[in-house]
Amino acid sequence: MKYTFLSLLMIISLSVSGQANQKFIKKELMLKKWLSKATFEPGYIIREKDTVFANILAFKNRDNINSFLFCVSKDKNDSILFFTADEILEYRVGKSIYKRATADKENFFIKQIKSGIVNLYEREPIPSDSKFLYYLKKKNQRGFLEICPDEKNFEIYENKGNYENSSNNNQNNKELWIFTKDTPERFKLFVKTYFVGCEKVRNMVNADIYTISDIPSIVESYNQCFSTK
């Protein structure tokens, strides 16, 4: 296996940065412990102006954190390339799609887990942020809504930056999306405001059948409301 000049340049450029994610990426790319047991699957990489089809490394188990920080591809000549979220907009490995998002001026990837009227993504804890997060996006929504389901006094943030269209995106236009200080009612008000037009979802949330920990089920039920119309 050989590493391209682009790979070496990326490692060098990461060494001059003090950001948490980039420090972690630099260490992972230097050690490459996961490469000896790597499984590559068909996929693609999307830059701003083109899509490249390639075999993409599928991270597993303890190495899965890398999926949210960088992408590893192998071309037909067995050369290995590394791409961070600073460089590409999206990648796919097998059936899994990862899109770029930004917070606190750090880019990373989020994994799509539901698609439809509302697209749902998740992100495991990463060096720059130790929280597990969900990201929601409607088709005409500019940015993402960010929710941490594990916080008792949860908050909803709206990332207004259009992270899909700029490779040099260091925006952090993140605003609190909040309706009331009454925590028990906050999630219900959010569902009523965001998931409009689906009585099934509204009723199940009002009856406490769906709670904040059931966001994937809420999104799936909401999308089904419109897929049958």
Helix-strand layout with pairing:
Elements lengths: L1 E2 L1 H10 L5 H12 L8 E7 L4 E7 L12 E5 L4 E6 L5 E4 L2 E8 L2 E9 L3 E6 L9 E6 L5 E4 L8 E4 L14 E4 L5 H12 L4 H8 L8 H13 L2
Parallel strand pairs: 1-5
Antiparallel strand pairs: 2-3, 2-6, 3-4, 4-5, 6-7, 7-8, 8-9, 9-10, 10-11, 11-12, 12-13
Describe the structure in brief:
By secondary structure, the protein is an alpha+beta fold. Helix content is 24%, strand content 31%. The longest helix has 13 residues, at 215-227.
Written description of the protein model:
By secondary structure, this protein is α+β, with helices and mostly antiparallel strands. 24% of the residues lie in helices and 31% in strands. It has five helices and 13 strands. The chain has a 13-stranded mixed sheet with strand order 1-5-4-3-2-6-7-8-9-10-11-12-13. Strand 7 (96-103) and strand 8 (106-114) form a beta hairpin. 31% of the residues are buried. The model is unreliable at 8-18 and 165-170 (pLDDT under 50).
C-alpha-based Rg, rounded? 19 Å
Portion of residues in helices? 10-25%
Distance between the termini: 51 Å
Strand content: 25-35%
Weakly predicted, low-confidence segments? 8-18, 165-170
The largest β sheet comes out as: 13 strands, mixed
Mean pLDDT: 83
Strand order of the largest sheet: 1-5-4-3-2-6-7-8-9-10-11-12-13
The count of DSSP E runs of length 2 or more, i.e. the number of strands, is 13
Count, helices: 5
Q: Give me the secondary-structure category.
A: alpha+beta
Order of helices and strands: EHHEEEEEEEEEEEEHHH
Shape: elongated
